[in-house]
Structure formats: structure tokens, C-alpha cells
Amino acid sequence: MNKAISTRLAFAVAILSLLIFIILWQVIAQQGLLVKNFPGSFKTIGSLIWWVSDPFFDNGPNDLGIGTNLLISLRRVLIGYSLAVLVAVPLGVLMGMSKLAQSSLNPYVQLLKPVSPLAWLPVGLFVFRNSEITGIFVIFITSIWPTLINTAFGVASINPDYLRVSKSLGASKSTTIRRVILPAIMPNILAGMRISMGTAWLVIVAAEMLLGTGIGYFIWNEWNNLSLENIFVAIIIIGFTGFILDQFFGFLQDKFDYSI
Amino acid sequence: MNKKSSKKSSSNENYSHLELFNLGKIFFKEKKFIDFRSKGNRSGFEAIKDINLKIEKNTFVSIIGPSGCGKSTLLNLIAGLQAPTSGKIVIDGQAIKGPGPDRGVIFQNYALMPWLTTIQNIEFALNTVFPAKTKADVKERARKYLRMVGLEKASNKFPKELSGGMKQRVAIARALSINPNMLLMDEPFGALDALTRSYLQDELLSIWRRNKVTVVLITHSIEEALLLSDKIVLMSSGPSAIISEEISVDLERPRDREKIEQDPKYLKIKMRLEKHLLRETRAVEEVT
What we know:
The complex is a heterodimer. By secondary structure, chain A is mostly helical. Chain A has two domains: 1-38; 43-255, MetI-like fold. Helices cover 80% and strands 0% of the residues of chain A. Chain A is globular, with a radius of gyration of 23 Å. Chain B has one domain (16-27, 45-285): P-loop containing nucleotide triphosphate hydrolases (Rossmann fold), CATH 3.40.50. In chain B, the strands form two sheets. Chain B has a six-stranded mixed beta sheet, sandwiched between helices. In chain B, strand 7, helix 5 (194-211) and strand 8 form a beta-alpha-beta unit.
């Protein structure tokens, strides 16, 4: 009962703080306290409602509905990210299991991991001559590292008891990988996938500013239109989408948490 | 005392179930990629050396020694989980080359897979060892062994929902389900509280009596060894641990844990074991 009250209280506080934020924003903008012509919260909410009420129109590449743009971005992320997971998990397992694979691949991982994935954008454009594939390629590069590193770490730090049981039963290598190692490192894989998704969603916005179409391009386009309120609309939509994606992985992680 | 068993290895009774000849294990340091100093001659840690031991079929043997003396190493070698550096291990007259389903292994930390339910843990072992068995067959067999350890009702529970004693009972059921003729146990009750430990010791004894297996038990508890074993093998302190003594425990079975403590024979062996362990432990503690 106490908990129910505190949940309701937390909700009320959140609503209250949102209201205060909206009012402050409106007042500061209206008084021109920040810069001239800074859009207020009312105007921003107005255009948010306008964009959301008809999200999927298509009047040519520079005039797409925000839902259409969002789906374009999500599609790129999903394809590039899925390909990255398909490569990163087997490669990570290999790196975790074999000293040889570890020492031959680790230098590349360590060298390439700290590079902003956007640096690969010109390379992608040069090789693929296609902005769509380049976007997917950049997301692929972005997503691969956290999943790869987490998977390899998971395999390397797996409870040796599981492997001993498997070995003592005379299990083959493939049985051990499929039935013991993969389920055992599921929490690590999911943690890596969650970070990968977070980073991919950050990078797609920046990449699309240079590629055309997508939610990132929408922002760039609205900057050219000097429509700051539409940029705020995009920020809200991007934040909300990222939150949903992250929650989805949080849910999966809870399902595969063996510890509790 | 050795009843004739119907298992595949009954053809020849001339040799013991398990024989160890001059068994030794040295753990070498991992070789570094570039290593200027050692120049090829690898130095290592010698865990055990010159171990010679015979274990008869369907007997219960405990291996006891001070901590860090290489008892677990010895068990891992017999299980085939590690390869010996020297000497050989012979089971039923055949030198072993690796692990095999003729030996069931039970670990101190139960080693149940946390993503599988109790019954699935047993099914995993069965599917691995008997890939030809049908699903229904495997399920029925798994259930039978869960019933044997009294955990049929917990078959759909996950290991995290079980107590330590229940987990170890599942591990025992898993090890026995593949129908081994030897059970290798590495301090299986070490992590349990005293009451649960006694309960599981009794359980193990009755399982051993019914299933006709040879048991090799690693323990550091003198009382446990005395209550359960036909023979107690004493190991010296490591490194380079050897077998310093073998004591046969000719106490009548079934042994009652209360009455046995008044038996003068029991007390005599117990004193001898205590003396030995104290001496060897002192040797460990006073080295540094």
C-alpha cells in the first residue's frame, strides 16, 4: 500500500516537473531571454501535434512526414545492426575460445573501436556509391564493437564448472557451444547488444545529416528552413524511440538474468 | 563382498576397477609469446607425483589430505578432464584417453546449468551421452533419477529456486542418470551445512548400496571418510604430493553415525587420521 502511494506520488512529481519545465521554457522564449525568435514550448507542442497527426505523407525527399523519416532511419539501423550481431556473436565466441583468434583479431578491435563510425562514411560512399547502403554500413561498423567485445568477454569468463560438466559427459565441441556456451553468455550478448543499439541510434542521426532522408536528415533540412521548433519535435521523437528500443533490451536482459 | 555386476565390464575380474600407475601432474606456466629468460626449459608446479593406487569394483574409497594437496587434481585426472604429465590411468584393464560416460563426476559447486530446469539439467546429460534415445525415453529416465533423489516435485524448478542440498541431489541424479560404474565426487558436501550434509551422506550411502557403483570421494572431513568408506587414502601435503598411507576401514555396515563413534576400531583409525592430517597441515602452514 505504501508502495502504491509512492508510485502515484512519483508520477505526480514527474507531471509537475514537466509542467514547470514547459512553462519556464515558454516564458524564457517569449521574453527573448536566450536568443531572439527562440521557439517557445507552446509553438513546439503545436508543431509536434501537427507532425504526429499526419506522420506518413510523402511530398518528395525534402518533404516527408516525420513517421516516414523515422521508419527510414529505423530500417537502416535494423538492417545494419542485425548484420553486425550476426557477425559479432560468432566472432566473439571464436575470440573467447581461441587464443589464436584472440591475438590475431584483438589488435584490430582495439584500434578500430575508438574511431567514430562517421569516419567510415566517405569510405562507404566511395565503395558502395549508394547512400542507403552506406548508412547501413556505418551502422554495421557502429554496432559491431560492443557486441563483439561483450561476447568475447562472456566466453572468456564463463564459469569453468559448466565446461567441465560438458567435457566430463564427452560432449562434442559443437554441442558445448550450442548447449552450454551460448546460453551461458546470453546475458553478456544482450548487454553488448543493448549498448550497440544505443550507439547505433546515436550515430544514425549524425550519419543521415550527410546522407539524405531519415530522421537525421529531417533535422538538417529543418535547420536549412530555420525551423527550430521542428528540430525540437525531431529531438523528442528520437529520444522517445531510443527509450523504447532500450526498454526492449532491458526487458530481454531481465528474461535472461540467471543470477536472481 | 564383490557381487557380480551385470555391467559390460564383468568379463574379467583379474584387475581392479581403477588402477593408477606412477601418476604425476605438473602444471606448466603458460608460455609467453616472446620469452627470453626461460630459454626453452619449462618450469612448472608439480601437483602430484608417483601416485600408485588400486580401487576395487563397487567399493567406496575416500581420498583425504590437507588443503591444496592436489586431491582435486587427482580426481580431474581420473575423470579425464586433465591429462597426466606422467604415468597412466587404467580402468577395467584399459588405459583411459579422456573423459567418458563410464565415470559420473560431481562437483563441489553442483555445476548445474542455471538456464535449465532441474529435469532439463538431467536431460542435457542424457541427450549428450545417449543421442539415439527418444525424447520420451530421455524424459522418463530423467524423471526416474529425480525420483531416486526425492526431487520429482522440483522437476520444473530452476537451480536458483533450490537449496544447496537439493542442488547437489540434482547433480547426483544427473551423474547417475548416465549409468556410470564409477562416481567421482570432489568435496560434494563441503559447501553444505552440517545437518544437510548428514542427510546427503545417508542418501549417498543408500544410493551406493542400490546402484552398485565404485565411488571415489574427495573430502577433508575425517568423520565423513570414516562413515562412508571401505578404504581411506591419505595424501601428503603438496606440492609434489604423494599417497602416504592407505587405511582400510573394516567397520560393519550399515554404519550408524551415533553408534559408530563408540566403536574402539573407529576411534583408533580416527586418531591415526587426525595425527596424519595435523602433521601434514603443519608442514603446509610452517613452510612460509
